[in-house]
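Now for today's protein:

——
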Amino acid sequence: MTTEEQKLSLVQHLTALRGCLIRGSLALIATSLVSLYFSKQIFEFLQQPLIRHFHAGSSFIATSPLEAVVTYLKVGLLSGLFLSSPFLLYQVWLFIAPGLYAKERRYAMTFVGSSTLLFVGGAAFGYYVIFPFGFDFFVSLLTGTQIQFLPRMEDYLGFVTKMLLTFGGIFELPLILVALAVMGVVHHKQLASWRRYVLVLTFLVGGILTPGPDVMSQFLMSVPLLILYEVSLLIIRFIEKKN
């Protein structure tokens, strides 16, 4: 490849990257603006797992004039990022697709859709299953004391955001394992031999992520991780046989 061809190739890549960044930014701005309009309703939705365990006198509070404004702006941005994530992932795929083989491009499209579904599933699992147990434990610690539970809006949003991102990320486990298998880093028999270690690790992770000391909350976190691991093994085995 001559120097001129290299320069042309670099310019084409930069042009493609700029196009992806512009389209992704516009999508993020559009979804964030729409989400900002509904930010109060979205925040009320996020509050529900904790509000259900409130005692008399408990409520959310804002400790500064701008706290509510900042919180709703963050809600709008986070919701916009969440809504636009499939399109953003698609833009990433458009940028890297020209450098992939046809087989890799086929897998890439599957990964974009699967990663979105798994992340949403993980976040939903945290919200509907883990949060009720965790918040019940937090509030029960104050039962019979003279401490009034008054969580700040901004603190609560930060905590919920971290937890939802964590659960969404953990549910990407099958995608990560399958990607490693496609690249030849791991294989089905190797992963199957790690079952005993994975069993211990999942219950350790479950104990860390679930705040309650009860076995049930840890069990609810650990079992889905084990199921996801086994599903990953089945998918990897199918891919290996097909290839």
